[in-house]
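User: Sequence recovery, please. Input:
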């Protein structure tokens, strides 16, 4: 999943970006409101983490403009403003959630996870495909009840395919949601990552054909008959 963090504090921006990347998210960052508006307008992010008190363009103005344009990106307001009126105003302008500074990184990640799931109409944090189970809250994977250890980006790839289960996902969509601007993929990066992921899952046992290739279109994860 791809997240945009718009925060003018270098320390906090770095902290949030690092925490989300460690959790497996592709993260882009912006240091002021104008940059954040430009980035949010040119790409559909799964979640936007938005400070309110920003230089050049405030967070509420960004939110208002995005909603007026029809953007459906889920927005988590991250701010020091903690009055009821502030929270109500943000929600009225189209925010989906509100987190007051200071905050615990674990809570921020949990809220981002919930918003990302909501964007795909998924409420249950556990996705099961055949004998494969992905727990998006714990960020764990098991097959035939055997744990599978995945590095953050491989987990993010599997989670994205699973959350889109039954649908063909193009290479471009995978690039968009898994890689951020700090890690632009090589031309064969997606194919290589899927190949490696498929081998890891197959090695864990069970039906080896959960991740299938649709030549010329992309990849699909779905339960298949043995």
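Assistant: Recovered sequence (226 residues):
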């Amino acid at each position: 999943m791809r997240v945009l963090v718009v925060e003018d504090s270098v320390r906090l921006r770095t902290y949030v970006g690092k925490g989300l990347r460690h959790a497996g998210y592709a993260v882009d960052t912006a240091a002021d409101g104008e940059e954040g508006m430009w980035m949010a307008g040119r790409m559909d992010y799964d979640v936007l983490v938005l400070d309110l008190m920003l230089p050049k363009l405030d967070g509420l103005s960004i939110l208002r403009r995005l909603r007026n344009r029809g953007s459906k990106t889920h927005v988590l307001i991250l701010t020091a403003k903690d009055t009821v009126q502030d929270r109500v105003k943000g929600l009225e302008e189209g925010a989906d959630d509100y987190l007051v500074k200071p905050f615990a990184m674990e809570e921020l990640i949990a809220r981002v996870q919930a918003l990302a799931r909501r964007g795909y109409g998924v409420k249950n944090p556990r996705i099961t495909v055949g004998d494969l189970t992905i727990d998006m809250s714990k960020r764990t994977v098991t097959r035939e009840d055997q744990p599978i250890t995945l590095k953050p980006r491989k987990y993010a790839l599997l989670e994205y395919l699973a959350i889109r289960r039954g649908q063909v996902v193009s290479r471009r969509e995978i690039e968009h949601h898994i890689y951020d601007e700090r890690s632009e993929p090589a031309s064969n990066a997606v194919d290589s990552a899927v190949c490696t992921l498929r081998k890891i899952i197959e090695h864990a046992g069970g039906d080896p054909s959960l991740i299938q290739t649709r030549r010329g279109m992309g990849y699909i994860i779905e339960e298949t008959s043995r």
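The helical segments are 10-22, 33-42, 59-68, 84-92, 105-119, 152-163, 171-178, 189-203.
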